[in-house]
Amino acid sequence: MKMRAILLSLGTAALLTGCQNMDQNGLLSSGAEAYQAYSLSDAQVKTLSDEACKEQDSKASLAPANSTYTQRLNKIASALGDNINGQPVNYKVYVTKDVNAFAMANGCIRVYSGLMDMMNDNEVEAVIGHEMGHVALGHVKRGMQVALGTNALRVAAASAGGVLGNLSQSQLGALGEKLVNAQFSQRQEAEADDYSYDLLRKRGINPSGLVTSFEKLAKQDAGRQSSMFDDHPASEARAQHIRDRMKADGLQPPAAQ
Ligand SMILES: [Zn+2]
């Protein structure tokens, strides 16, 4: 998410950045390779995610290990568990005013300090659980396949002779941006919400944070420009869905803000 993290808001133009000299014939003639790039294996997705995560880290301001942010995130991480469907996770804080968080298929989880500033631990757990859901449910992998399958990145990847051969730094950066700012369908968002709810319950964490984090994000979006709203539409309905689930489970939903 940057809670936006999860937002694929970059358009095709941005993805073409590294490929402006690519000619149309090249694009059209590489159909076979393109298909290969589009149907990535889990191993390829992991490799590409490793690279994209490293690239994002290199551009970010990472919170030091002894910082309050990192210590707080470590505590949150231990509450959530150390893996997504068996994939070990790796948490870091990006120090920035932006409000976002994202998870990649290789277990790379990044939380922005701007999000940690506006949310309590319970809410951050809910948000990360949601992001983990996008990975666990295959949304992130699908997003990567779409990114590689719909534009020049695909050609660059395919023509490197085996898929992920040699994406240039800028191509990798563009792919990383796609992942960091992924936009999912409303259905995927709802599925990730349910995943987070189930995860929180399983880990003995109060799911109230799901409701209140939505409400905070919605309020923030009303107050200033943010792309979070793009990816997390219908936040009222989503909050209500979680309230309903809590009631069905005999839990007291949080009071309306
Ligand atoms: Zn989402």
From TrEMBL:
Entry note: cofactor: Binds 1 zinc ion per subunit.
Top-rank lineage group of the source organism: Bacteria
Record field: compositional bias (Basic and acidic residues): 229-248
Signal peptide coordinates: none
Record-linked InterPro entries: Mito/Outer_Membr_Metalloprot (IPR051156), Peptidase_M48 (IPR001915)
This protein's GO CC annotations: membrane
Pfam family, one: Peptidase_M48
UniProt feature coiled coil, ranges: none
Keywords: Hydrolase, Metal-binding, Metalloprotease, Protease, Zinc
Cofactor: Zn(2+)
GO BP terms: proteolysis involved in protein catabolic process
Domain Peptidase M48 positions: 72-245
Entry keyword Metal-binding: yes
Chain residue ranges for the region called Disordered: 221-257
GO MF entry, a single one: metalloendopeptidase activity
The family this protein is said to belong to: Belongs to the peptidase M48 family.
This protein's name: Metalloprotease
